[in-house]
Amino acid sequence: MLFGATPLKKFPAPVRLIIAYGINSAQNAMMAYPLNEALFNSTTAPHAIFQIVQAPGFTTSDASSSTPPTSPATSRRRTTPRTRRRRTPGPGSARRDNLSDADRQSYIGLDEGMAAIASTLRSSGPVDAVLGFSQGGAVAALVAAALETPHRDVHAEQAAWVAALREANEGRGLRFAAVYSGFFAVDESLAWCFEPKIQTPTIQFIGSLDTVVDEGRSRALVDRCEEAAVVVHPGGHYVPISKEWAMALAGYVKHHAQDPEAAKM
């Protein structure tokens, strides 16, 4: 899916970005809107063209629209979730009931979810960046860490999906990651993603009234990123789509879209 007009020759090639969704269908429908508002309705980055690669497990018919869904009900009518827990599981996918404290530290279906993302990259081509909301935000951080070069040493349990992800992205690191309402993944087998800190530049949006993801968990992810820009909005667990917050993304994206050296390659 190509967004925007034909770029001028003096500008770099389009930045390819994959979106990692959460399990909230209303918010998933809004994920592409800040990109449209920030990149194509703004004078700060009129040339920044994106190619959006949809992660498996969710489709939306109006992702290219510059108009946000009018309500959660409207969003649900316009979207088609496809077994998100199975296809794109992430840190939030772990079942919370009937589990011991030890069991709650591992994430159900993570391997399959990452393999599905690798399959998407293999068929659609490598990407330069990742954007994620909620569980997708946590996954975005893991993807960024896994793709960094020089490659990190990997825990044996994740070796297969990490190898598949790196191969699918042709060994390339990401220029940046954008995270909305994300959080630190506490599974001890994922410690290699955060030690040393994630070097890929990130911009992380935190809702000061978020009651779904505790701010402490979002801050824990920030603390494990070497180069993190933090934007706090006065809202809850959602993707802020007003111009004020879209412009924060615009300036960040403009810089990294123009600077290929921002990638950790």
From TrEMBL:
Residues in Serine hydrolase domain copies: 100-247
Keyword Hydrolase part of the UniProt annotation: yes
Record protein name field: Dihydrofolate reductase
Hydrolase among keywords: yes
Residue ranges with Low complexity bias: 59-74
SUPFAM superfamilies (alphabetical): alpha/beta-Hydrolases
Keywords associated with the record: Hydrolase
InterPro entries according to UniProt: AB_hydrolase_fold, FSH-like_dom, LovG
Record organism: Verticillium dahliae (strain VdLs.17 / ATCC MYA-4575 / FGSC 10137) (Verticillium wilt)
